[in-house]
Amino acid sequence: MSASLPPKGPGLPNLPPQQQQQVHATPMPGPGQPAMPLREISPVFLCRIGQETVQDIITRTMEIFQITRATQLPNGVTQSQAAYQDRFGKLQEHLRQLTLLFRKLRLLYERCVEMTSDLHEGPAELVPYLGEEVTPVRVEPCSPAVIQERQEVLEKVRQKNQEMKVLMDQMRNLLWDVNAMLTLRK
Hints:
By secondary structure, this protein is mainly α. Helix content is 63%, strand content 0%. The protein is flat and about 70 Å long. 2% of the residues are buried. One of its GO terms (cellular component) is mediator complex. It comes from Scleropages formosus (Asian bonytongue).
């Protein structure tokens, strides 16, 4: 019994073909069978798809600007009707794709909000405002290996910061000397 895959809809935004097959491979329950849930898509995966969608939106927008920049204004010069129609068609296609990408982004956003609605932290709790008193965060004790690794990373960062400070001082002194020599030449 071979069934074809349904087309992508709002519930399956731009999944790779393997995952679409995995999601749709779940057999549909019969009248007497309990419903089996589809494989859950994580909010992190949806956010990654959303990031790629935003990148596509930016790319399409840049292409629209390039097309409009390359288009000459009708200042009495006759341009070939075919070239005009070609550019107009490309512009229309980019605008149509841009509309679809924004719809896709909206669906992804709504799905992420729906999936993460059970989180306790709101945006105000995650990023404190200036002048707002910050409530202390309870930190659970870490394992000794994590503490040691943190100390090693902090020591490496301190060493790198010290090296950067030395280099910045050397560059500052070099620029000072160059400026002094240039001033003496005049």
